[in-house]
Design brief:
The protein is an alpha+beta fold and 336 residues long. It has a domain of 142 residues: Nucleotidyltransferase, domain 5 (2-Layer Sandwich). It is 36% helix and 15% strand. The strands form three sheets. Strands 4, 5, 6, 7, 8 and 9 form a six-stranded mixed sheet that branches. The structure holds zinc ion (ZN). Zinc ion (ZN) binds next to loops.
């Protein structure tokens, strides 16, 4: 199946005339229907112990309540989700997700939803935090282009805390990493995207990444037998060997090897930089992972704007979410 994925992805990226020529050549073959499958499954499970052994147990103010036969606790579809114990209606949260899909600022979204900007900021990160679970399970297959990009270390938003000290001590140790001109004030973000547009990106380290750093992103997120297309960084040889990937490396300045190139990952980096640097005027490193996910959903997930918004909302509203919103600003300044 993996080889088929590779073929389909290459096919989908051909020009219309190349597609026609290809189909003419293999006329008579039955091509499988490539329609998108929805990845949302509405299996209701216990909000406390995740058991599927549940029964309906009346309604509370019009909302279906369930009883778990294993842990004997009751719950509703909202228990422990982002909509649990909120002062606002589902409609306000939906409106807020719509603002996020449009890449709106905190101030504008707060105004559109009738909430205060502090609440809007907390919601932004509660929502993006809950999408981390979805992002963790992303597995890329077929033809996967990968490369790292870098963002300047940023402590934006940390300075208003009286006890905050800039964690820049690496400057003074004389050991900062200047290989290939990448210093330790650069946050490394390895990214990968397949020809279907499924993407993954996570902060791994400061400065140039080691094989160990790259493994943090790529070890579990690329399906076996995929074709991995990268630049000549030798770290990718190890990763490809460890995970049974076919490696194609493109020499700097050389456009492609056969049908493979790194155009998609280069364009991914440009769009990500536009999103972070121009749209948000740079973001604090402690929140960068959340903005990476936001970019993946807004600019890369498949489907129409409406379909994406629906998938986004369904996931956020049905997944368990435990973090208290007061903790959002207390996270580590450098999350690596
Ligand atoms: Zn239970």
């Amino acid at each position: 199946m993996t080889e088929l994925n590779t073929l389909f992805q290459i096919f989908n990226n051909l020009s219309e005339s190349e597609k026609k020529a290809f189909l003419k050549k293999i006329k008579g073959e039955n091509l499988p229907n490539l329609t998108k499958a929805s990845n949302i499954t509405n299996i209701c499970k216990c909000a406390h112990c995740n058991s599927a052994n549940i029964v309906k147990n009346g309604t509370v103010r019009g909302v279906q309540r369930y009883l778990c036969r294993d842990c004997h606790k009751t719950f509703t579809p909202k228990t422990n989700t982002i909509l649990f114990k909120t002062h606002y209606s589902d409609a306000v949260w939906r409106k807020y997700i719509n603002c996020m899909m449009n890449g709106m600022s905190i101030r504008k979204s707060a105004k559109a939803c009738g909430i205060n900007p502090d609440t809007a900021f907390k919601w932004r990160h509660k929502i993006l935090d809950s999408l981390q679970t979805m992002h963790k399970n992303v597995k890329l297959n077929g033809v996967v282009e990968a490369d790292e990009t870098f963002f300047p270390l940023s402590f934006k938003g940390n300075h208003n805390k009286s006890n905050f000290k800039l964690p820049r001590e690496s400057h003074h140790r004389g050991k900062s990493n200047h290989k290939r001109g990448i210093s330790s004030d650069q946050v490394c973000v390895p990214c990968a995207i397949n020809l279907n547009g499924l993407s993954k990106s996570v902060i791994t380290n400061l400065g140039k990444p080691t094989v160990k750093d790259l493994r943090k992103v790529f070890s579990r997120s690329i399906a076996e037998n995929s074709v991995l297309v990268t630049d000549r960084n030798s770290a990718y040889n190890k990763i490809a060997n460890e995970h049974n990937l076919q490696l194609v490396q493109i020499k700097a300045g050389k456009g492609s090897v056969g049908t493979f190139n790194i155009a998609k990952i280069n364009s991914y980096h440009s769009i990500l930089k536009m999103f972070i640097i121009y749209n948000f005027k740079g973001v604090s490193t402690k929140y960068l992972n959340n903005y990476l996910i936001w970019n993946n959903i807004k600019n890369y997930a498949l489907g129409s704007e409406e379909e994406k918004e629906q998938i986004f909302a369904d996931f956020v509203f049905t997944n368990k979410f435990c973090e208290n919103s007061h903790d959002v600003s207390k996270r580590k300044a450098i999350p690596v």
